[in-house]
Amino acid sequence: MTTPAGLLLVLAVLLPFTGVLLGLVLGGRHAQRVAWVTILLGIGIVLAITRVLLNSGASLVYLLGGWAPPLGVALRADGLSVCMMLVVALVVGAVGVYANGDFGTPAGQSEARAPLAFWLLLLAVWGSLNLVFVSGDIFTLYVALELLTFAGVPLVALDGRAETLQAALRYLVYALLGSMFYLLGTFLLYGAYGTLDIALLAARVGSQPVTWMAAALMTAGLLAKTALFPLHLWLPPAHAGAPAAASALLSALVIKGAWFLVVRLWVDVFAGIVTLPAAQLLAALGASAIIVGNIVALRQARLKLLIAYSTVAQIGYLFLMFPLVQALNAMRLDTAAAVTGGVLQAISHATAKAAMFMAAGLIYSTLGHDRMADLRGAGRALPMTITAFALAGASLIGLPPSGGFLAKWLLLSAAIATAQWWWVLVMLVGGLLTSAYVFMVVVRAMAPAAPGWSPKKQVPGYQQAAVLGLALCSFLLGLAALLPVDMAQIGRTVAPLVGSP
Questions:
Q1: Cβ neighbours, 10 Å, residue 154
Q2: Contact between residue 378 and residue 362 where contact means Cβ atoms under 8 Å apart
Q3: Where does the pLDDT of residue 387 fall: very low under 50, low under 70, confident under 90, or very high at 90 and above?
Q4: Distance separating alpha carbons of residues 240 and 248, to the nearest angstrom
Q5: Among 162, 206, 296, 350, which residue is least crowded by beta carbons within 10 Å?
Q6: Coil, strand or helix: which one is 272?
Q7: Which pLDDT score, from 0 to 100, does residue 102 have?
Q8: Quick one: pLDDT at residue 111?
Q9: What residue spans of 162-275 are helical by DSSP H?
Q10: Which residues contact 73 (CB under 8 A, 6 or more apart)?
Q11: What's the pLDDT tens digit per position in 320-369?
Q12: Which residues are CB-contacts of 84 (< 8 A; sequence separation ≥ 6)?
């Protein structure tokens, strides 16, 4: 049944899309104003949802039309959902502040194509992600993923250059193939079990070939959308070629939608179906992403490409949680540490990577390029931005008290508890490689500028403040360990293992 305040879930989804329609109708400078009103109202709604979740200690539920599944569609928000909605609201707000400098309508013009498109797509990405986080059935999740794809792809090609159009088309092809695989799996599950509702599926699925085929198809499709190695080829040109504000959205948020769905399927729906070898295979792809992505990042000649390949590597950490959860389940131990570690890794990466891409945008504006070999002078011209880059990098490395440190600590603890020492080694090597390129960028940026050099452009202070704010959030996220409750675990239900008494 619908819980008190369940209507807030509907508002969290509908408000951004209402902003898109209103901005489209009003157009011009009004689109930016509509976006800002929507952002402020949307943040208020997410905070209200968080308050209700913490006070009630249970999930929020809303039954569309009052019909319960399997006839109707349910929206649900547990601790995992609300954690992700909070970080999305935070990043969208910071990107919005930053984008005022890059996507304001030029003086003397009533409307410009790129600013209008950016503000509408920003809201569309937000609404789509909120729908991903609160959807209670796997077909609504498919619809949400498609909305997210069609909002994310145009962000890549906002500047209209040939290379960004090519990158956007490659991204679209991967995303559509991923959608096709996911949809095939959805059809198989519905045909076998007669429901699309996640909670009902979790109770009905059995260990049989149709379930394994559905799980394989859906997972493969989602891995393509998440850009997990070796399906990552679309990501570097797309994220490095987009404008900085768009890159921040794509790298910090959009790829998390598909990953969140993998978590829903593997931890909630197929918890008793997936085997430990299958989870080990998924994590092996993640480990490959960590090693290959970091090494390739070290070889990049441009800063934005380095950050994009860093994203390829950091995605790998998100998949190390699955064999840990599976092993803890098999040992009848609490899986909270592994699940919370994975979510914290997603949150700390979202805030850190958004800060790094926006910092790269400011460095480009100041120097007129982002060549790694010639970053000197950036530290003197942009001290706040380089500090933010270093703080965000510290979180990616996993230095205390950052969110990356707490996330990796939880994952390391789970790996040790389940005697999976090889994932410990992967995380340590990944941290060393990450520290190498973060150190390289900071040292080169702090080198003194050539005599007579002056910045190409003075960037506004509020843009640097937005970057520093996100970096600080990522760096201080580790203090979440001091909170009295593990918010990610509120409202979580553990599916029974197949064959368990």
A1: 17
A2: no
A3: very high
A4: 10
A5: 162
A6: coil
A7: 87
A8: 66
A9: 162-193, 198-204, 209-226, 235-241, 244-249, 255-263
A10: 63, 64, 67, 136, 137, 140
A11: 999 999 999 888 888 888 999 999 999 999 999 999 999 999 999 999 99
A12: 129, 133, 256, 260, 343, 346, 347
User: What's the whole-model pTM score?
Assistant: 0.94
- Structure tokens given for 358: 């926006």
- Look up residue 200 and give its two tokens: 């009902």
- Picking from 126, 132, 134, the residue whose alpha carbon sits closest to that of residue 9 is 134
Q: Residue 434: left if φ>0, alpha if ψ -120 to 50, beta else—which one?
A: alpha
> What is the percentage of the chain residues whose pLDDT exceeds 90?
81
How is residue 35 written in tokens?
A: 């976006």
What's the pLDDT band for 434 if we cut at 50, 70, 90? very high
> CA-based angle 61:63:68, to the nearest 5?
110
Instruction: Report the alpha-carbon distance of residue 307 to residue 291 in Å, rounded.
Output: 15
264 DSSP assignment: I
Place of tokens 């860093």: 310
pLDDT over 60 at 126, yes or no: yes
Ramachandran area for residue 57 (φ above 0: left; ψ -120 to 50: alpha; else beta)? left
3-state secondary structure 424-480: HHHHHHHHHHHHHHHHHHHHHHHCCCCCCCCCCCCCCHHHHHHHHHHHHHHHHHHHH
Give the burial class of 429: count Cβ atoms within 10 A of its Cβ; 0-12 exposed, 13-18 middle, 19 or more buried. Answer: middle
| Cβ–Cβ under 8 Å, residues 32 and 87 | no
